[in-house]
# Entry
Amino acid sequence: MCGITGFWVTSASSDLEEIANRMAMAIRYRGPDDSGTWSDGTAGVAFGFRRLAIIDLSEQGHQPMVSASGRFVIIFNGEVFNFRAIRNELEGRGALFRGHSDTEVMLAAFEAWGIENAVRRFVGMFAIAVWDKQERELTLIRDRLGVKPLYIFADSGVISFGSELKALVAGPVFDSTLNSDGLGSFLRYLYIPAPHTIYKKVHKLLPGHLLRIRNPAQALPPSVPYWSVDRVIEANRSVNGAVDDQALLQQFDDLLTEAVKLRLESDVPLGALLSGGVDSSVVVAIMQSLASRPVRTFTIGFDQQEHNEARFARTVARHLGTDHTELLLSGADALAIVPSLPEMFDEPLADPSQIPTFLVCRLARQSVTVALTGDGGDELFAGYNRYVDGERLLARAARMPSGVRRMAGGVLTAVRADTWDAVQRLTWPLLPERAKVRLAGGKVQKVGHVLLHESDAERYGSLVSFARQPSLLLSDSDPYEDHVVKGFEELKDLPLLERMMAVDQKHYLPDDLLAKVDRASMAVSLEARVPLLDHRLVEFSWRLPRSFKIRDGAGKWILKQSLYKRVPRDIVDRPKVGFTVPIKEWLQGPLSEWASDLLSERMIAKHGVLRADAAADAWQRFRSGMGEDPTGLWAMATLQAWLERWH
# Structure
């Protein structure tokens, strides 16, 4: 795991490597163990690199690395987990190797099969830049699911790229004009969807894409997909008719075990982040079954009991016999981290779980350099409540007469969320178990707003959004493209459940969850590995019948079956808490002064992005207890904090 950056300029320069080093230094925490630069003065190309040494800690793993023939030069962030199998195949063809890094194997694969054909063989997470001296061509590549980031800036005969935006800001040229599409998406969904970024002239390389550049003076050519969720869906639509449950379960368990086993390759200490939920628990259970000593596991919890999952992680760790470390988080801990978030997340991201994610990564880094996580299980195997309840809601809404549906939506949204919460507290003893849901008021309001929309696509966009009309919050109210609604409409031939999961896999997973984990882990020089997002498991998940995901009204059926083999059912079968954050309590308490300052008319006027009247009104409604969504306020405050640091 590392940080990569570089650029290609048309104008001659004698300080190419000096600039490349400056760009790499901006992300030095991604690779504290080593650094390197390379340039081709004739072509105007330079690479910068920061190394977090994981495999082959010797000089033989140093980057930038040149292929044996001298044709290819590579910088690479991530891991190719099946590099040993590829190396054996290449050695059978006569290839010789100096060290035992995956980087050297990748270069030999490029020489043997060409870049794109080689990449199709890689199992892993990666962002890659390759300079082909023979063709005078720069190729940029991102892994299939978007685990590792890659940003690209293009303007005025300059192309620069890097693992994070701050590397591009330090490049030879940069334009900080903001992107209105990115701002609207951010306020609505808490993240900026690829290919957009916060900057108008920077874009993210899409997951599973490869970009070949031959002339930096010309407009960037379109990137080419070598793998995509859409193609996987088309090729692997879930099977129909009779299936053999046990055969599919065994096939899944074998794939999952292989995915975890591959990700145990490391020359440095390795552990796991354990939340106590199904996803991380099954990963840790398999890790422990493959290990000869107790696996190091790490979890954090909250001092607000309703948000605290640490006790479940403790129970799982005790049963599996891991070497477990736990940290409880308070509002004061959050306050201490918040000022550093704009530096850590140099593109706005308002997923509140970024705070505990950073803290658990920091906790783990005190003992290990690599940590496996359970990310991806919800998106692959229908783990979110919205896949079960949301599908039912959208289906019923589609059948309701338009007038009745809008009337019901109006009634539900007319009552404040805190009022619904008060009603639930009074009636709690009388409610059936299914009706005893956390944060009920916000969910009732969410249902109401969903019912006010006219199409399935708009209803799902409303279901997963926070600011319903972000244009009313922005000083520049230009319309923006809603990627969720558009993506949902493009998948109209799929059943509702599959449409929801596909949109989330293409956008929410890489642009929110994986971006959050990448920045939080790399900020403390920790490599996070995600075995559930092995692309072979993703492909397998789309071949599964629906009943292997949702059965008896609950999601992740197949994942739970795998966990039942390793952990008692009474530990697994419990209400889902999730990695939720007490953001309402924090904004009412230790973060109140921070948010008040950022959302003041003075600060809003200073940056000129938000509308002062709308933001101030929302903050006042929240402070007055009028049920304003705290996550939406968190997004506005986060944006203001980002503007203060970067703009």
